[in-house]
Specification:
Helix content of chain B: 40-55%
Number of strands of chain B: 0
Shape of chain A: globular
CATH class of chain A: Mainly Alpha
Distance between the termini of chain B: 64 Å
Oligomer: heterodimer
Number of helices of chain A: 7
Helix content of chain A: over 70%
Structural class of chain A: mainly alpha
Structural class of chain B: mainly alpha
Distance between the termini of chain A: 40 Å
Strand content of chain B: under 5%
Bound molecules: zinc ion
CATH superfamily of chain A: Winged helix-like DNA-binding domain superfamily/Winged helix DNA-binding domain
Radius of gyration of chain A: 18 Å
Radius of gyration of chain B: 27 Å
Strand content of chain A: under 5%
């Protein structure tokens, strides 16, 4: 294991903002939640950078991201939500996209729905591996589980996903 | 060797040790069951990796945006305007919330949203403008 230099907050935001957003988006399936979570994580990282002691930066960052995600999910379950009124839509009035674009969108939606159907630990492991591109070692460090568990979750997660998509 | 199910994904991801790789390959060469399973997880892996990477909204990660400008509070803000218009015909624009770039000044967005929604329900005259605030 090597020591990574401590990056500045701007570097973190620039280099990892998109990855964190895609991680959150694939776990929630909701762009608003993903955006809020991403900013929340980046602010937590800003507060935490001062006390970060060099180690593997990715492990540290994704551990924060994961914990923020889990906290937020729990908080939401407890909170009664205010229903949004009908017609609360971002209607851009743009022309409808062509058929091949729609087919791609539908496939993406099917995959997203299948992902959301997986138990949390499996979805998380698959998303960290196949969406974020983390190594098994980084995933193990982020979720606090042994490599063997990570291997098993990724494999079983993919298998479940394949079953749901067929 | 038993069917090495969990190791099949690790094999695809090049996450096996130098000792494990030849073992798996030897097993795959005469186990149809594992070969079929390898194809299945490989298909799932490609499908997920084929998902488009999405661009976050532009305000994400810019150091001069505090969470007050985030997606959920903007939803609450739209609700605020709607509630204000529905409850009374008086709509006051004002009450600009200014928050500095100081991390200590970061306001919990959940509290913010729920407070604003709660306030407007009892007092339809309140509406707010929130968003990015220029930092130092
Ligand atoms: Zn086998």
């Amino acid at each position: 294991m090597h020591d990574d230099p401590v990056p500045s907050w701007e570097e973190v935001a620039q280099r990892y903002g998109r990855q964190i957003y895609n991680f959150a988006y694939r776990l929630t399936g909701n762009p608003d939640d993903a955006a809020d979570l991403t900013q929340e994580v980046l602010l937590k990282v800003r507060r935490g950078l001062g006390s970060y002691t060099p180690g593997t930066f990715e492990g540290w960052l994704w551990r924060i991201t994961r914990n923020a995600f889990i906290d937020e999910t729990r908080r939401r379950k407890r909170r009664a939500t205010v229903p949004l009124p009908e017609g609360d839509r971002d209607d851009t009035g743009a022309a409808p996209p062509p058929e091949d674009v729609l087919a791609t969108v539908r496939l993406g939606e099917e995959v997203q729905a299948a992902l959301l159907d997986l138990p949390y630990e499996f979805r998380e492991a698959v998303v960290m591996c196949d969406v974020v591109g983390l190594s098994y070692e980084e995933i193990a460090e982020s979720v606090g589980a042994p490599i063997g568990t990570v291997r098993s979750r990724i494999h079983r997660g993919r298998k479940m996903l394949r079953e749901r998509l067929s | 060797m038993n069917h090495p199910a969990d190791l099949l994904s690790a094999y695809l991801d090049d996450e096996l040790t130098a000792v494990e790789i030849p073992e798996i390959e030897a097993h795959l060469s005469d186990c149809e069951e594992c070969t079929a399973e390898l194809e299945e997880v490989s298909a799932a892996r490609m499908v997920i990796r084929g998902l488009p990477l999405l661009d976050p909204p532009a305000w994400i990660g810019s150091s001069d945006v505090v969470p007050i400008g985030s997606a959920r509070s903007r939803r609450a803000q739209r609700f605020t305007r709607w509630a204000a218009a529905a409850a009374a015909s008086v709509v006051l624009l004002g009450g600009v919330v200014v928050v500095s770039d100081d991390p200590a000044a970061v306001v919990d967005i959940d509290t913010m949203s729920s407070q604003h929604v709660a306030r407007v329900v009892v007092d339809p005259g309140i509406s707010t403008i929130r968003g990015p605030v220029a930092g130092p």
